[in-house]
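Deadline looming. Please check this record:
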Amino acid sequence: MVIRSLELLNYRNYEKVRLDLEEGINILFGDNAQGKTNLLEAIYLAATTKSHRSSKDREMIRLGEDEAHIRIFLEQNQITHRIDLHLKQNKPKGAAIDGVPVRRSSELVGFLKVVFFSPEDLSMIKNGPGERRRFLDLELCQLDKVYLSNLAGYNRVVNQRNNLLKQMTRDASLSETLDLWDEQLVSYGSRVIETREQFIRRLGGVVERIHSHLSGEKEDLILRYAPQVSVQDFARELRRQRDRDIYLKSTGTGPHRDDLIFEINGTDARKYGSQGQQRTAALALKMAEIELVSQITGQQPVLLLDDVLSELDRNRQNYLLNGIQGTQVIMTCTGMEEFVGSRVRFNRVFEVADASVTPREDVTEERQEDIHE
């Protein structure tokens, strides 16, 4: 899978811009706050319908404009496709594939498969469980339409049940409908738990192998799924906690409270791991994500690297760059000096400044010889 071009109209700080991308490594360099990350965000949004920054649609529309437009041409199995995404100030976003409007955003998710890697991901292990659940859900939603449907159904029921719990303070008779919502919650939630469990089991094997190599075979990493409740106990626990839920006006049982545990040599990396160990584990997780997407779909995802190299030491940089051969990469950095001494060969270079993107054809293979000295 390869993105051939990206076009933006009134998106973030861009009035109008087009990037023609190549297979291999594409580099966007420039000072901070020039719009490099906005370009990666637009691609991620077209792939997942969500911003990695959790921004609202109106926040991504250029100041003073009513709409923004993203267009991507991508090549898959030697066939060219077009994705169009319209963002509107006060209306739901609109999307189309090859000119045909999609009825639901879920139809777009996973058509373009991407892996996004930012410096924040290096802190995933030490931060709260919400970030690890988000990683898990975003990856599974790209790979499994059934999971996407079950997760959407589960989240909808959780919200409706929580609204009901709030309304019960004014009308206690509404409690009679809780059984109906609990039945749906258990139905959707059990399928979410089972799919997560299967996926983590498969992902864990890849993570362990990659981490062992990264650590020089000195450390063992185990990725463990930690469901807040088991499928077998879900209905019973939900019933047992009902009075608590009514008091707190919130649903406290279910996979929206799940977590992932990273154990290094038998200890919890979140609690006892050093920053270096946590970062190595996070890098192994991202590398495993790329490999697993390829295994499951038979195609390499597009890798989006947002200023990650500056956060990694040379050994981890080389492992990352050597491990993405055959993958289209779109990466941001502040300057080409970051590649001095590295072995990376890039295919296209763009300079980003003042909301404009300029191809730098002068950075050719001949110039790269100087960089690698």
In short: The radius of gyration is 22 Å. The longest strand covers residues 2-11.
